[in-house]
Amino acid sequence: MTLIDLQRDMRAWLAREDDAAATRLGGEDAAPGLRVHRNNFRASLAACLEESFARTRDWIGDEAFARAVAAHILRVPPSSWTLDAYPRDFPPTLALLYPGDPEVAELAWIDFALGEAFVGPDAAALTAADITEVDWDAAVLHFTPTLDLRDLTTNATAIWSALAEGVEPPGVAYLPEQGAILVWREAETAHFRAIDQIERQALLAARAGLSFADLCAELVDRFGQEDGTSRAGEMLGQWLADRLIVAISHSDDDAPHQ
Amino acid sequence: MIAPFAGFGLGLRKPHYAEFLETKVAVDFVEVISENFMIPGGRPRRILREVRERYPVALHGVSMSIGSADGLDGAYLARLRALIDEIDPLFVSDHLSWSRIDGFNSHDLLPLPYTREALDLVSANVDRAQNALGRAMLVENPSTYIDFAPADTTEWAFLDALCARTGCGLLLDVNNVFVSASNHGFDPIAYLDGLPHARVRQIHLAGHSQGSELLIDTHDQPVPDPVWSLYAHVLPKLGPVATMIERDDAIPPLHELLAELGTARRIARETVRTAA
């Protein structure tokens, strides 16, 4: 047997307990060792998911979580060099397993995104004092690289917070209209905040490079001069307070103002 | 000529971060798992930078997969090279094993058959890794649970040939020798005597557990007496060598690991005295 065939057989055994592969690898002689590696494989992935999704596990319970982990290992074999990447696809697995309970996948996404933000790239945020000289007619905002967004349909943020504080979580409630969860890290603390669709769209547009003046214009078109300008100002103030903005460049130059 | 580093160290694990950063722990170096620090940002990398200001650091990897039949991951090597350039480690090591094939990563140290084909492949991979990293690496003998008979050679002869072909060094895990010898029925003394001693730059000492059928390299126990005996046997054969206690699970208070390291220091002193 060539080395690559041997390695493909071991992969088949680990990923789906392929008995024919086990026979080719040595049958009964190799069986005890193969079982050690299968246990190592499953245990390391299970431990990774248990550590990464503590609040999700609290919510659905240990037994249901273990079943979800087993299903996920079959559905998504690990591919990255780092185990830290393995949690990424667990929320979609939970969405498949709990199609009628969307808060489960949303809780899992909060667990996952907070972990990702924790080890994401560093970036120093601007404060109000840093933006006194900004030309707002041409300003383009640059956001912290740990910023991440996901659609939100339930009160998963309130459930997550209650579970984290060890208090009785509220019952599941659907939002009146779909919103989003915003996750980011500031200094060494990861944060999240529920936002509405208007802020979600504004953040995505600004992060894609829309100038702040054009963002204001879009909000004025949508909500009128007074309300649109007011909303733009409130959002900018909130983003600064949350320390989401790490640089401002001008649409007519390339160098961000940091 | 600069003498090889020959201090005594510990694996740096999360429960002990604060003690290592807030006090001067009596070690000559610490070893960290490379992959835990290969993302350039966030708290882990900052902690490693602070640790490096206080202690020499060895980088020990678990995901290079030098035995992968479809080659090494170039992006992984680039990340590791960036970490090396920042940390300037004492040693860079990984295992004689494979974990990745066709995009699948087992995150386990899977065994190789000790064949000519495997030797050619591992040698080519180690050559590529050392070129990418800009330095020689150390290769660690694994604990193994499957004996891929018939092999062309023994594990120790395979390591000897690998060192000769690539110029790499060895990280000798004495516990792994004991575990594999127990699982496969070979003589651990013959293994230790057959290694290329001049290539050994670092030693791991650890504990293991009895599984239902095999000994398992769990790193969740103190170093047992048979492993200390093997350490005492091999030490006189080696040149200056770094020694450390490796504990990854059921991690005890730091003073217990330092006591174990004290045993290693005592054995090393007695070995030198006996040799003199």
UniProtKB/TrEMBL annotation, chain A:
Domain of life: Bacteria
Occurrences of domain Putative DNA-binding (ranges): 6-91
Protein known as: Putative DNA-binding domain-containing protein
TrEMBL record, chain B:
Gene3D superfamilies: Divalent-metal-dependent TIM barrel enzymes
Coiled coil stretches, renumbered: none
Pfam family, one: MbnB_TglH_ChrH
UniProt family annotation: Belongs to the UPF0276 family.
PANTHER family, A to Z: UPF0276 PROTEIN HI_1600
Protein name in UniProt: UPF0276 protein FHR20_002282
Native source species: Sphingomonas leidyi
